[in-house]
Amino acid sequence: MSDLIFPGVAALLCLGLGGALLARHVVKIVMALSLLQSSTALLFVALGYRNAGGVPLFSLASEGGRMSLPSFQAMAMAILVVSSLFTALLLAFGLLLHRRYGTFDIDEIRRSL
């Protein structure tokens, strides 16, 4: 596996966290949180990888052969499903905020509370 995967995960994590903390636009915050969740899914896929590992199907595994760990891949898929649902829910809340306050700017919404 490439040695760049873990620094890539750290970069995505920092970009997502920084974007979520520094952005003032609701949609940008949602995008940053989605990026943060994608970095955790990528981390799980990277942790489940094994050098010279086969497909994680037990019926295709050779005797004593190595295979990638399927539990990490299953967790990554679960993270991606929950992430897409979470993103859709946050975007719906963002639209409700826009309908009520007429803006996506967090500072203006706080001032009008």
From TrEMBL:
EC top class named in words? oxidoreductase
Q: Give membrane topology per the record.
A: Multi-pass membrane protein
Enumerate the GO terms in the molecular function aspect.
NADH dehydrogenase (quinone) (non-electrogenic) activity
- What residue ranges are annotated as transmembrane? 6-23, 30-52, 72-97
> One GO cellular component from the entry?
plasma membrane
Q: What Enzyme Commission number(s) does the record list for this chain? A: 1.6.5.9
- Localization per Swiss-Prot or TrEMBL: Cell membrane
For this UniProt record, the keywords arranged alphabetically read as follows:
Cell membrane, Membrane, Oxidoreductase, Transmembrane, Transmembrane helix
Top-rank lineage group of the source organism: Bacteria
Q: What is its main location?
A: membrane
Q: Which Pfam families match?
A: Oxidored_q2
The family classification in the record reads:
Belongs to the CPA3 antiporters (TC 2.A.63) subunit C family.
Provide the protein name.
NADH-quinone oxidoreductase subunit K
Lineage of origin: Bacteria, Thermotogati, Synergistota, Synergistia, Synergistales
